[in-house]
Amino acid sequence: MSEEEATKLLNSLTQQKATQVQDWLKSVWQGKQQIPENFNWDGLAIVAADKARGTVSSFGEQEPPNLDWAKVAISVYDFLAATHPNMKYSFSLDAMMLRAYTISKMGYIPGDPILDGACIVNWFLNNLKFSPKEALCIALHWKDVMANKYKELTQNQQQFATLIEEVRQLRQIKNQLLVIQLLSQNNQFKLDEEMYTWLSIQQQLP
Q1: C-alpha to C-alpha distances, 99 to 15, 47, 184, nearest whole angstrom
Q2: Is a pLDDT exceeding 70 seen at residue 104?
Q3: Cα(149)–Cα(155) distance, rounded to whole angstroms?
Q4: Are 19 and 71 in contact (CB under 8 A)?
Q5: Which residues contact 154 (CB under 8 A, 6 or more apart)?
Q6: What is the pTM of this model?
Q7: Helices (H), the chain
Q8: Beta carbons within 8 Å of 170's beta carbon, 6+ residues apart
């Protein structure tokens, strides 16, 4: 399939109903249709996510979120996360942010594939490598290093590399906490004490 044909396919899909796109995705992933090698999956996810959040009408009013388009977007983000290991974190973050947004607008429904906040909390906890206390200690150590001991630490490449990797992981946690923060805006879904502890140190992370 040429690039022009792939673009036409993307445009055609985004003009269809979300349920029709879901059927197309199911057909592709069941192997009933060939996946174009140059098809813009990321583009489909972005457009579907925009539709899921609701567009602005001609009168300037924000339309309500669309759960069917949220299902399409999250399905594609999950597919991209599974097939692009180097981008797994980014695609998973996009999917969970859309979940949290949809829950904040449409409510929390236990067991729902999109509107169950427990899915987001489990995603956050399953990716953790530190406790809140450990994360805060690393963050404070990093601030001290940057203020007073940067030159000294850089002379020990192994220690410096270890600290840089820990700081990178803390920044990922901080980004994930943006999702938890959005989820917390829905009063129907109650976070536990551990999650509120994480939120309390969010701004102290690098």
Answers
A1: 23, 15, 12
A2: yes
A3: 10
A4: no
A5: 160
A6: 0.88
A7: 3-14, 18-29, 41-53, 67-83, 88-106, 117-126, 132-144, 150-154, 157-183, 193-200
A8: 130, 135, 138, 139, 142, 205, 206
